[in-house]
Amino acid sequence: MTPRSKKKVETASRSNTEIRTLVLRYFYDRNATATSARGKKGYAVKISDVRKELKARQGLSQQEVMSNLNYLLSQGWVEEDKVEKSVPLPSGTVIPNTTSYYKITAPGIDKIEGPGEFTMEKFKGIKIEATGQNIITVGDGNQVDAQYLHVAGALVELKQALLESTSITEAQKLDAVADIDSIQSQLAKSSPNRGVVQGAWEAVKRLDTVLGLADKVAKVAGLLAPFLS
Question: For residues 209, 215, 216 and 217, what is the CA-based torsion angle, rounded to 10 degrees?
């Protein structure tokens, strides 16, 4: 067996868990050696460079990188950092241009290093109280089925962030909170109404364009994925 064919066999036998570990470790190592925020020595990196470097170092295909990076993003281990610029054309037209960079998060670092002195409690500021065999009450007073604890916590975090936002009007905040509450009310059921969840989320997901909310919207979207497909 040639060295090349042996490498193909080895990479083909890797599980998704092993690949996710390699991808997360890549971002961890990059953060540890970074001397700038973005660019060649930055802790945040373009997706094209992620694919290129993981292929060279670990023999990962683009499909393996993208599918497992998507998982890490939805779980909050890695986050997308969008940089928006306006590009003026000779004609006078200004075209918006967005470049996405990817970087490891604090939970991602803790995933590798383990919890430390600076690790925040997972549901800090969110009161969790058992009110029945399978029902819990989260910090905003909503009750949810225990199996939906993680998505409920993420929804509370999103609600708190949007209420503190200065980029949207009070009317927009009230509308968004009402939709979030609708989703949470469904999570009190063992079998939530997918139509209600999807309808409410259609309005809430537009918050991803609001400064400071994109990451939290993406996190909830990942956790709500079983109800949105």
Answer: 50
| CA atoms in the 13 A half-sphere facing the CB of 105 | 18
Among the listed residues 40, 41, 36, 64, the one whose alpha carbon sits nearest the alpha carbon of residue 51: 64
pLDDT value for 102: 93
Cβ proximity of 172 and 128 under 8 Å? no
78 contacts 109 by C-beta, under 8 angstroms: no
Q: Please, what are the domains in the chain? A: 3-104 (1.10.10.10), 121-228 (no CATH)
pTM above 0.90, yes or no: no
Taking each helix axis from N to C end, the angle separating 16-33 and 106-113, rounded to the nearest 10 degrees, works out to: 110
Mean pLDDT by 10 residues, the chain (229 residues): 50 82 94 89 92 94 92 85 78 80 89 76 49 53 70 86 84 86 83 88 87 87 87
**Which stretches of 71-131 are assigned E, i.e. beta strand?**
78-88, 94-104, 129-130
Strand segments (E) across the chain: 36-38, 42-46, 78-88, 94-104, 129-130, 135-137, 143-145
Residue type present at position 162: L
In a 10 Å sphere around its CB, with 0-12 CB exposed, 13-18 middle and 19+ buried, how is residue 125 labelled? exposed
Q: Alpha-carbon distance 139 to 184, whole Å? A: 12
Q: How many residues does the chain have?
A: 229
